[in-house]
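During the reporting period, we have paired protein sequences with C-alpha cells. One record among many follows, to show the layout:
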Amino acid sequence: MSSTDSITQEPSAEPAASDLPIAKARSHTSAPAPSRASKFLSFYKPYIGLFLMDMACALIVSATLLALPLCAQYITTHLLDGAAPHALTHIALMGALMLALVGVYALCNMFIDYQGHMMGARMESDMRSELFDHYQKLSFSFYDEQRTGELMTRITNDTFAMAELYHHGPEDIVTTFLTVIGAFVILLRVNVALTLVVFLFLPIMAVYALYFNRKMNRALRSSKDRIGDINAQVEDALAGARVVKSFTNEDIERRKFAHANNRFLVSRRDGYRSEAYFSGGLQAFAQLITVAVIVFGGAAIVRASLSLADLLTYLLFIGILVDPVQKLVNFGRLYQEGITGFNRYMEIMEVAPDLHDAPGAVDLTDVRGQVEFQAVSFRYQPDHPAVLSNLSLEIQAGEYVALVGASGAGKTTLCSLIPRFYDVDAGRILVDGQDIRDVTLRSLRGNIGIVQQDIYLFAGTVADNIRYGALDASRQEIVTAARRAHAHEFIMALPDGYDTDIGQRGVRLSGGQKQRLSIARVFLKNPPIIIFDEATSALDNESEKAVQDSLEKLANNRTTLVIAHPCQPSAMPSDSWCSLKPGSSNRGHMRS
C-alpha cells in the first residue's frame, strides 16, 4: 500500500441537516424535467376513464341542482292558481320527477364519494411509490444532509394533501362553474335587474378570496415545514430512546420537542386565522346575497315588477348558490394544501441522483477482486477538508488487507468509495482493471459484501434478516451461513429459532448477536470482495475468535478488507484485527 500524499481527518459525525432548499444541495442538482404543470396532470393519465366518469357525475349533480328549483317554479307559477285542469295530477307527476332527480343526484354523489376518493387514493399510492423509488436512487450524500422525519412527511402528509386536491379539485371547479353559470342564465330570464344585483357580489368575493388565498399559501407552507421538524424530532428521540434514558435526559428531549411543537402551533395559528377570514368572509357574502334578494325582491314585488313565485324561485337558487360558495371555500383550502404538498414533492423529485450508471455501462462479471486506487482525492463537501488526497494503492485479488488507524483517518471513507457510495473528486478506482464508473452500480455492489460498524437489522425474523444477503436463499443455505458466522447456537436458543421476531433494529438481540447476524448476511451473499468495518467490535473474545476463524475460511481466494483501530497487542487476543498477524497478508498501516 502506498500513499503519495496524506489522508486527513474525515468528518467525525454525519453532516447536519441542511436548512437550505433541497434543490441546492452540493452533489445533487435539478435534473431537466417536464414542467411542473405537465407533471401534475400526468398522474391523471392512468385513470382517465374513471376521471371522466367522475366529471360526468359532477355535471349531472350540477344539472339536478338547477332542475329542482325550476320544477318548484313550474308548480308555483302554473299549478297553484287553481285554474289549471288536473292540477293535482300534474303536481304529483312533478313531485315524481323531483324524486327521480333526487335519486339520480344521490347516486351520482355516491359515485363521486366512493370512486372519486378511490381514484385519489390510487394516485396517492402512485405518487408515494414514485417518491419512494426516487429515494432509493439518491446517494449517501443526499441523506447526509436530510432528516428522516422530514423525508417521511413528504411521502405521507404531502402526498395525502395532493390526493385530496386531485380528487376534489376538478369536481369542485366543475360543479361550482356550472351551477353559478346555470343559475345566472336562468335568473336573467326571471329578472335582469335583481340578477345583476346578486352577481355584482361575485367580483368582490373573488378579490377577497384571492387575497386570503395568498396568505393561506404562506401559512400552509410554513405549517408543513414545521410538521416535518416535529417528525424529525420524534424519530430522533424514539430511535435514541435507550441513549436518552441511560443519560436521564428525558427533560431535554421534552424541551426540544416542545420547541418544535410550539413552532408548529404558531404556524397553524397563522394558517387557521387566514382560513377563518377566507371561509368566514365568503360565507358572509353568501348571506349578504340572500339579504339583497329579499330586500330588492320585496321592493320589486311592491312595484309589481316581480311576482311572489319568482321571488321564491330566486331564494331557492340563492340556496343552491351557497353550496358552490362552500365548495369554493373547500377548494381554496385543498388547493393551497395540495399545491404546497406538490411543490415539496417536486423539490425531491427534481433532485437528480448524483450516482448513476454511465451511458454504455456494462455489468461487472467474473470478478477476481483486484482493487486499485489511482491518485484518488475525496472530500464530503466542497468547503470541507479533503479526507483522501492523491491516494494510490493496489490490492491484489484474494489479498487479505487490514486498514489500521485512528478514528477519522479515512478508513471507512476509503472503503465507501469502492462500492461507489460516493464518487471520487479526482483520480479513479479500478476493480479487475475496470473503472467502477464504467460498470453498473447493481453489478458492482452485487460483488461486494459489507459489514458496517453501525449495524442495521430490519424488523422481522432472524431468517428474514439473514436472507437479505440473498433473497432467493433456501432455509438450509440460511442455516449454513449462520453456522459459518457462529450464530446458529444462539439463534436456536431463541423462542422460535430462525422464525423469532427480533423487533425494530434487532432490539431483542444483544450487540454481539446483531453483529453476527449481519456477518451471516455477507456469508450468504458470498461476494468476491468483502469489507469488514470494525465488524467484530461488539464481540467478546471467544465469539471474535470463532468469527475470525470462519472469516479466514471465507477469505480464501477472496479480496478482504478489514478496518480496525490500533491497539496494544497485549490488550487483545494475538489474532485480533488490530494486530498484524505473522504469515498473513496484512499489509502496513494507514497513515493519518
